């Protein structure tokens, strides 16, 4: 009896998950252990594909920095455990810096702004702590690696590391 139950369980196809939306909060490390608070949204498809958008920024004096990180990833279960997964994929980074015009003609960069974009790869580990009815709570660590700009030394790269907690609902 026990062996027939185990055999039936082993050959049963996995149940496809529905789409899931999650709200994300956490921190983005921008190098030199400087963490910035970030917020975002996440979409998880039943096939293990996921999309994520994280935004963060800061104001200091007349300077405003804004950043957005958009990633498309594939999840793979680690160690046969559905609660722990590895992710890999592609990532896009957009950053802008603006200096407010304060009317002071002595300031060289008065009203100056710059935008930069980059595309790279992402890998990381995600975990789901709680699944209750159609809600989930989890956490993730991801490292986004970007190649250097054209004018830089070829071996130099940029990196953004994210530590996030997320809560979502399955549709």
Strand order across the biggest sheet?
A: 1-2-3-4-5-6-7-8
Shape: elongated
Work out the number of β strands.
Answer: 8
Which segments are poorly predicted (pLDDT under 50) over 5 or more consecutive residues? 1-15
Helical run tally: 1
Percent helix: under 10%
CATH topology (level 3) name = Porin
Main sheet: strands, sense, barrel: 8 strands, antiparallel, barrel
- Average pLDDT rating: 81
Global structural class: mainly beta
CATH architecture: Beta Barrel
- Taking the alpha carbons of the first and last residues, their distance comes to 37 Å
What is the CATH C level class, in words? Mainly Beta
Strand content: over 45%
- How many structural domains are formed by the residues? 1
Q: How would the blueprint of this fold be written?
A:
Elements (H helix, E strand, L loop, with lengths): L1 H10 L8 E10 L5 E10 L4 E12 L2 E16 L2 E19 L13 E20 L2 E13 L9 E14 L1
Antiparallel strand pairs: 1-2, 1-8, 2-3, 3-4, 4-5, 5-6, 6-7, 7-8
Can you tell me about this structure?
- There is one protein chain.
- With about 170 residues, the chain is mainly beta.
- The protein has one domain: Porin (Beta Barrel).
- It contains one helix and eight strands, in the order H-E-E-E-E-E-E-E-E.
- The protein has one helix at about 1-10, and strands at about 20-30, 35-45, 50-60, 65-80, 80-100, 115-130, 135-145, 155-170.
- Strands 1-2-3-4-5-6-7-8 form an eight-stranded antiparallel beta barrel.
- Strand 6 and strand 7 form a beta hairpin.
- Mean pLDDT is about 80; it is low at about 1-15.
